């Protein structure tokens, strides 16, 4: 047991962030519904709620960094919490994407008569999978390789190299996002163009959202590495970011094969 | 969750704690416990540096210090790392092992305070019984009503009541 507290666990100090996050979620949901129905002030409440949620995330995780790196509360057994938590969160995200892949398969494997009985539906001009999507396909896994490089650098104690590797990871991620954004802008179909548009943009759109979140996570890891927070023994936050990044990478590969490639044949 | 340890001796005792904890196999080393109890009575942050230097000067082998392993370690993480480098576990006193306690040679359970909850699971193999829980108090021996194993408390900390009532510091 730890001298000053007789156990290895972390009993967290009272914090306002759970309630502030809840209030932000309330504002977001109510504002969202108001926005989508004819109520005044919906947009304002929705934006306020989203900003509040983002703020809560920022201050909550800042407190976690303070308690762990700066105050040393994260003993080995405490680290298991965020570790398993990250893994389980990623599993829940897998379930989330599973739903979108199911939706896409449901509509594409037995195309309805209303869309011409064919897939892609009649009139839809699909994106050529062998252009931008094929270019993006090596970019994201290379980014994954870079994050593995960063991990090895951290484990070897090569702090500067780890920063460079994380910079490379983020740059590749931004290139990916840039290309996807360009494609979205120039796509000949929109989200409202039949079930094809819906499934395409929902699946790739949520993937893009996750890429942006992952990129942000990696940027923060890069900053922390630069500031010297991450040690070779203890870098749970970085590992969580790397796992999340590999997950995003795998989802892209599934997207490319099932939606871009198979879905366009 | 609690863990039980069965020693390799003929008949064994186990003290069980209603708190989840990592692995349980270790031997209790007397000297480190003395350092543990003296350190507990002083301010941890400062005394740890001194006791570590004293420890390393007494060692003949090259000893790793916390700074070598994780320079930015602080707080409880640092204490845990220090203990690991010194070869002891911080929750040592939660998992006592030893032969079956008798009146002449009671089973000794260490405690930071003047009393603690202990569980007796009986002897080895066939002699095991459902865990009997009891408060073991300083100065009072306890005999298990099922298997008559004899227990004694040894205070290795500041003593006093475990709930901290009457403690003027906090």
TrEMBL record, chain A:
Keywords in alphabetical order: Membrane, Mitochondrion, Mitochondrion inner membrane, Translocase, Transmembrane, Transmembrane helix
Cited SUPFAM superfamilies: Cytochrome c oxidase subunit III-like
CDD domains: Cyt_c_Oxidase_III (cd01665)
Pfam families with a match to the protein in the record: COX3
Plastid recorded as keyword: no
GO biological process: mitochondrial electron transport, cytochrome c to oxygen
Domain Heme-copper oxidase subunit III family profile, residue spans: 5-264
Transmembrane segments: 17-36, 43-61, 81-103, 162-180, 200-223, 243-263
Subcellular location: Mitochondrion inner membrane
Membrane topology: Multi-pass membrane protein
Function description: Component of the cytochrome c oxidase, the last enzyme in the mitochondrial electron transport chain which drives oxidative phosphorylation. The respiratory chain contains 3 multisubunit complexes succinate dehydrogenase (complex II, CII), ubiquinol-cytochrome c oxidoreductase (cytochrome b-c1 complex, complex III, CIII) and cytochrome c oxidase (complex IV, CIV), that cooperate to transfer electrons derived from NADH and succinate to molecular oxygen, creating an electrochemical gradient over the inner membrane that drives transmembrane transport and the ATP synthase.
UniProt similarity note: Belongs to the cytochrome c oxidase subunit 3 family.
The protein's name in its UniProt record: Cytochrome c oxidase subunit 3
Record organism: Arabidopsis thaliana x Arabidopsis arenosa
High-level lineage: Eukaryota, Viridiplantae, Streptophyta, Embryophyta, Tracheophyta
Automatic annotation (TrEMBL), chain B:
Keyword Metal-binding: yes
Keywords: Metal-binding, Zinc
GO biological process: mitochondrial electron transport, cytochrome c to oxygen
Binding site for Zn(2+): 120, 129, 144, 147
GO cellular component: mitochondrial envelope
Organism: Arabidopsis thaliana x Arabidopsis arenosa
MF annotations from Gene Ontology: metal ion binding
The protein's name in its UniProt record: Cytochrome c oxidase subunit Vb
Source organism superkingdom: Eukaryota
Signal peptide: none
Family: Belongs to the cytochrome c oxidase subunit 5B (TC 3.D.4.11) family.
